[in-house]
């Protein structure tokens, strides 16, 4: 396994690069915008292909690297389903699996610091975002924070993990890099409480000032979607309603770019071909599934995904590969369901 803990000294943020092998797919958790060049250099040095960029929650103290990484690598951006961020490619819920080649992370919803906070368990370690820090916990006094929910997330979920589980948080300001569940249970001063009410009282009396970057970071982090506007400006976007009419007239071939778990959870458009986004390049290449389909069919390919981000990047890639009739459904399955309602 390749595992790298990277640090942004300005915001005290830890970002994590994970991959199962050199030459394989990689993901990054909680990337910081200013460090994007560094991450991409590391990917190149380790011969990794970035396929997913994940935020544990909407950050208030730094600008996320998600949008920049998506624009530069066409990776999938991932956040929780509660997130208010305008467009991420893929949204996760409690109990989902976050996967790349050779790796599976269990997704745990751990609200409290924010209402869109998630933790990810991978074998012997857990990425806790700002829910559980080393000898601390993420503040709960803004961004729909909730000390009571955080108590449940920590005591009800994270502290139930095996004692020796390694704790990798999104931040540290003292220089600590890793802890364990047992260590935090025993020595984290915030966790030495006898009841949820005692925890709530503790968290509500911290008297912290707002993060320096908050007024800049929160609005910037909520607007990550750019790909769809550019694609629409080139005339490559169909509204869900248009796509419905064209599909009923059998004049388009729909291609679903989502992962199997998303199809199971959110349903599929009947008659669509499943060709997951991570395999797009080989599918569009000579001899690839989509290349052959486009050659054999009179009908233009129309891509769709969850919210229209992956499909916007796919339509660009298809155009680059010479499939000039390729289009996508703006807003994805989400827009399709709204149009069908
Ligand atoms: Fe945070």
Sum up the structure in keywords.
single chain; 341 residues; alpha/beta; 6-stranded mixed sheet; 13 helices; 19 strands; binds fe (ii) ion
Largest sheet: 6 strands, mixed
Alpha-carbon distance between the two ends: 45 Å
- List bound small molecules: fe (ii) ion
| Spatial ordering of strands, largest sheet | 1-2-3-4-5-6
Helix content: 25-40%
Discrete helix count? 13
Determine the structural class based on helices, strands and strand pairing. Answer: alpha/beta
Could you tell me the radius of gyration in angstroms?
21 Å
Mean pLDDT: 94
Secondary structure tally: strands: 19
Explain what the structure shows:
This protein is of the alpha/beta class. Helices cover 32% and strands 23% of the residues. The chain contains 13 helices and 19 strands. The strands form 4 sheets. Strands 1-2-3-4-5-6 form a 6-stranded mixed beta sheet. The N and C termini lie far apart (45 Å).
